Amino acid sequence: MTKSLRLSAAILLLFLIGLGFVLTSREFLRSLFPVGYIPEIDAIACQHGIDPYLALAVMRVESNFDPRAQSKPGARGLMQILPETADWIAQMRSESDFSPEHLYLPEVNIDYGCWYLNYLLEMFDNDIHLTLAAYNAGLGRVKQWLADEEWDGRPETINAIPFGETRFFVRKVLMIKSMYQWIYPDLFPGMERSM
Questions:
Q1: Catalytic residue, candidates 27, 40, 62, 150
Q2: Nearest of 135, 136, 114, 138 to residue 194 by alpha carbon
Q3: Is the pLDDT confidence value at 5 over 90?
Q4: The pTM is what?
Q5: CB 89 within 8 A of CB 112
Q6: What are 9-50's pLDDT values in tens digits?
């Protein structure tokens, strides 16, 4: 091996080591995975008994922390809640003063989104895969998939979820939740208070 080839190999090796360090560096990853609304998520998620990292991941996937986000079907706010779902949540909670415009208020949206996640987790015996599928595709639709045996709800059969958007949503939320837990291990002090 010539001297210049050894030097090139050494430079490439150092570059790869540096790249590996950068890609696993929490500081670098924090720039790729920003956070928002941490005090609100910490308080509200714990109040509803759900993992705040789950709420954070749903929020990141649904709106990328934009409180004014609105989807084509009309879902609104940080956790992308449809007005009709929010109306139903308000009725379930005996709240008579709800308006769909309230979904653009971060605390209201996070409260309704976390309440709904908790409701779905209870409905599906804490199965996060079924919960996320129902959050994205609708509770009735997921119940129908299960009844028709189109999807059995098991994590290893996510590829069988009939809607591609829902398959992607479930995978992405779970991946981002794991990333947030690794990058920001002490992000939510309320978790320790609630355990």
A1: 62
A2: 114
A3: no
A4: 0.85
A5: yes
A6: 667 666 666 556 555 678 888 889 999 999 999 999 999 999
Q: What is the C-alpha end-to-end distance of the chain, expressed in Å?
A: 60
Q: What is the pLDDT of residue 167?
A: 97
The b-or-e profile of 66-88 (16+ CB within 10 A means b, else e) is ebebeeeeebbbbbbbbbebbee
Which amino acid would we find at residue 68? R
Options 2.10.70.10, 2.40.240.20, 1.10.530.10, 3.30.1200.10; CATH for 35-194 is 1.10.530.10
For residue 6, pLDDT beyond 90: no
Of the candidate ranges 22-26, 56-60, 91-95, 162-166, the one whose mean pLDDT is the lowest: 22-26
**Catalytic: 101?**
no
Domain boundaries, the chain: 1-32, 35-194
